[in-house]
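To assess whether the prediction recovers the assembly geometry, we first specified each molecular entity separately, as shown.
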Amino acid sequence: MSCGTGGKSCETPRRRGAFVMLGIMTLAFVALSLFSFMKSRGQVTPDTVSYGPYRAEDGKRVFQAYNCMGCHTMVGNGAYLGPDLTREYEQAGPAWLAAFLPSAGSWPTAAAVRAQLQDPVQHADSGAGTIEAYESKFPDAATRVARRGGKPSNMPNLPLTRDETGQLIAYLKYTSAMNTEGWPPRVEAEAGPDERLRLALGVQAIAPAAAAPVAPPAAGPADPVARGAQLAKDNGCTACHSTTRQRLVGPGWGGLYGSRVSLADGSSVVADDAYLAESIRQPNAKIVAGYPASVMPGYDTLLKNDEVDAIVAYLHSLEKQ
Amino acid sequence: MQIEYQTQRLSLRFFMLMLVLFLLQVGYGLILATQHIDPSVQAGTMNFNIARAEHLNLGILWILCGFIGAILFVGPLLARREMVAPWLIKLLFYALIFIAVWNFFTLRLAQYGIAGWWHGQPWLQQGLEYLEAGRIAGVLVLVGFAILAYVVLRTFPPVRQWNEIHWGLGLGVTALMAVWVFGLFYVARLDLQEYFRWFVVHYWVEGVWEVIHISLVGFLLVLMFKVDIKSVGFAVFWGVALVWLSGLIGNAHHYFWIGTPEFWQFWGSLFSALEPLPLVFCFWHIYLDAHTNRRPLENAPAFYFILGSVVLEQIGAGILGFSMTFALTNVWSHGTWVTPGHAHLALFGTFGMLGIAAAYYAVPIMRKAPDYDQRLGKLGFWLVLTGVLGLAFAFALGGTVQIYVYRILGLGWFGGDVSRAMGLFKLLLPMFGIVFTVGAGILAYDLFTLGRRVRAPAGTDPRGAIHGEVAMPRGSTGWGRPLSGFEAGIWLMLMWVFGGVITLGLLSFNLPRVRVLADPTLPYLLAGVGYPGLLLVTLAFVWRFLASLEARASLPAPTVVAVDAPLPLPARS
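The predicted structure of the complete assembly is given in tokenized form:
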């Protein structure tokens, strides 16, 4: 046989050999792949994980629908603007996530996390009824609340419904349970928290941060409006409600007091003291037209009567905004 | 050279579309770089994930436009006849525009959580990295690939008469379509979804695009340097064979941490460490092909971009890819900024530059302007090369800081410490981004208006830039003397030495001194030497290579240089 003449390529035998090699390697690859997804591997699957009534399988669809991977990594794949989410459920726990996700533009405060813990689903899932028990179970949530609570976050608010939030938590519960062969690598550094900050940012950089906790806790000002403003901040209300007419997650407070509010059921109501107090205690009793129900937790058991009154007084003061 | 077949002209519209999409992608890149510094920019209007989805999507689309343009231009030459079914090619062009516009509107639905679920499939957008487009666009893309494969395979002569370049392109366009099918299913399990997602992403890049790349580079060299097609065929054969033999199981390097078993770490580390072999081979070949015959460069920008493509493939895909391909280094680099450093060089460098090279080769021929002013093209090349190397530098060093703060110190993102520690490198990103953007703008302008601008006045050499100005000071520095094989080897070795330093840097995160005592000195030192070293050597090598080519024009007759190994030609009998 001659090659290179009459249109015959010299590479034909070699090409055949390469195809045979490739075939063998394909078989090896297929075999490895089959082993990877066998039952005996014991990998968790999303159909077995749920969080309350919410299924991880649905959560995965929500995760994709919002293109979470466009900012975050999941099992390390995705974008690098935000943190990796693989172990997010394990670190922050369901209550922190439930407090954070609907109003992602702002970091949840301790009170906001506590508001979520009233939810029986939360209670059953995290096994912690009080904020103290929760924080000792999920120390990472405690750190986040302490360092960032109430501050604006880098994540934009997303129009997540209550169901979508629950489904996302179920999905994150599933990924937390996955065996990812030791990734992300365990942190083994011995340095304490302050030392770590110094190592990461340098001495000067952390000086203002260290000064922050020194600020004395506001000892309940006598003026009800000022007290209401402080309460609204502490309870994380301002994560969802702006003090202007702007819509963040819930309706803005500016000019709300005394105005006529159209409700989702078609009726309308004047935003007086009684309406505002009811909306704080049982937010689902009257839903404003154009807003989804069940996004806001009820503050009935969390706020005392005088505290609700103070917040209403504060809202009253925003009438002219 | 002139147009031999009328259907070659169909490539022009794809090159122009490529440039438009390229500019849009660069624009999105600048927005992303700004949002990295201040995430509130455009928040609520165009969130980061929307801009990023567009950035990735347009990146894929314009690279495909470049491939299609190049294939259409060389296809008739390879087949020695007109392309079949030009109407299908025109349809493909409008389909590409439609897909780009469609994606522009559908990708932003992610902001409202709308995926268009219907029968268990996301029809509008699906929120998976690189495969963001929904099923409607996905099916259209499949139809587009089918058209391309049909047109190319029908145009080519019967398989018996195929040479290696026919084989490379034929396999390439077929596999391009076949692999895409794996991205058209919704998968409920995360591990299985990632498994199949990398089928598309890895096999596209490693299995398909690289095969098309090798074949096109080979054929463009044949056209530009009148190299023997048989000897290029030899290179193409070994390139393609090595790419597939290393890349097939090499895909395992994506299966380290997605929930698949540990044994992938062995297979992935082993086979993907071999993945640079075909790239070294390709690199060596471009040296040989460009230096065996000592013709002066006729179309400098076209060759500049081919060289850029092969060199950036070597350092982006080859060296940086190698550094993070071992389970022990990947465990650190995975999910950090170190990765996009590699990705930008490998994707834009290898495939983007090839598309631009093909455009620079084909457009002057189609516009009948063989003696076009090449200065803008060269300037554009140097700007995008510097820009993309700078981007890789910012990503890689920023990523090294990120690994230390995020994974070693365990300071979560939620404290806001990680991005603060990366601040300097976050600032470098838009700076190099602007250099890149200026370069992209210049070369797009040049290609849009090439052959339509006012010609150089009679009496001056329109290609003055090659012959005159730059050539004169070279004699004293020696940068213009012919590049010997030995010297090219030294340059290549130097790149790999820095690559080794980078790899050791990533590896050093495993040391107890770094991991337990949290002392970052060693990884920072190695990264601080490795990355800038590698990128500067690359810049210098490209400079040296091109200087040696350009100096030929001023040499009356080529002096004898030791071109070490003549091409191992396949035996003829």
